[in-house]
Amino acid sequence: MRLGLKPGITARALRRARPVRLLVLDVDGVLTGNTVYVGSQGQDYKRFGIQDGMGIKLAQSAGIDVAVISGLGNAQAEERLRQLGVREFHGGYLKKMPVLERILTEKGLSFAQTAYMGDDWLDGPILAKVGLPMTVPGAQPEILRLAAWMSRQPGGCGAVREAIRFLLLAQGKLGQLVKTWRD
């Protein structure tokens, strides 16, 4: 993928999204903005988008499992994901590939059945191997080159919801979910 990847739906991305059964997310820059708030006592705070949380619940209800692998250990992220029913949170892993390989083995899934959304160099090895590599507009140039799909929204501001919406659309599940919530 060339630098300057444009957001949007391509035939290539649609094909790669259809077999996805597992969406794996990074935290900083994807589930949250690329910012940390530090309190006067040294505690840090992260901001999570509500629509991203709803997207995770929609993915789960549509049979797409969600896992998170973060380079940093983070109690706030772990708690938020627990609230959303995400059972696979792995924080503090600078080398993420062994964690993903273990998850895939335990779930009996392949790389082709996996989408990964990341934004920085730590995510590169996984993005180069999964069926659907996804990113956000603020990703590092090397990550943009690896991505088959990019959100229009930045991390922490609906990018995950947009990615899940795309997966549901590609798999023909979006219309029924919208109808279920509308009715």
Would you mind describing this structure in some detail?
By secondary structure, the protein is an alpha/beta fold. It is 38% helix and 15% strand. The strands form two sheets. A six-stranded parallel beta sheet has the order 5-4-1-6-7-8, sandwiched between helices. It has a two-stranded antiparallel ribbon with strand order 2-3. Strand 7, helix 6 and strand 8 form a beta-alpha-beta unit. Helix 2 packs parallel to helix 7. The longest helix has 12 residues. The model has no long low-confidence stretch (mean pLDDT 90).
Topology of this protein?
Blueprint lengths: L10 H7 L4 E4 L11 E2 L5 E2 L4 H12 L3 E6 L4 H9 L4 E4 L5 H11 L6 E4 L6 H4 L4 E4 L5 H6 L2 E2 L8 H12 L3 H9 L1
Parallel strand pairs: 1-4, 1-6, 4-5, 6-7, 7-8
Antiparallel strand pairs: 2-3
Helix pairs in contact: 2-7
Could you give a quick summary of the protein structure above?
The chain is α/β, with parallel strands linked by helices. The chain is built from eight helices and eight strands, in the order αβββαβαβαβαβαβαα.
Mean pLDDT: 90
The end-to-end distance, rounded to whole angstroms, is 40 Å
- The low-confidence parts are none
DSSP strand content: 15-25%
Largest sheet: 6 strands, parallel
Kindly name the structural category: alpha/beta
Order of strands across the main sheet:
5-4-1-6-7-8
**Rough outline:** globular
Order of helices and strands: HEEEHEHEHEHEHEHH
Total DSSP E strands: 8
Q: Cα-atom Rg, whole angstroms?
A: 15 Å
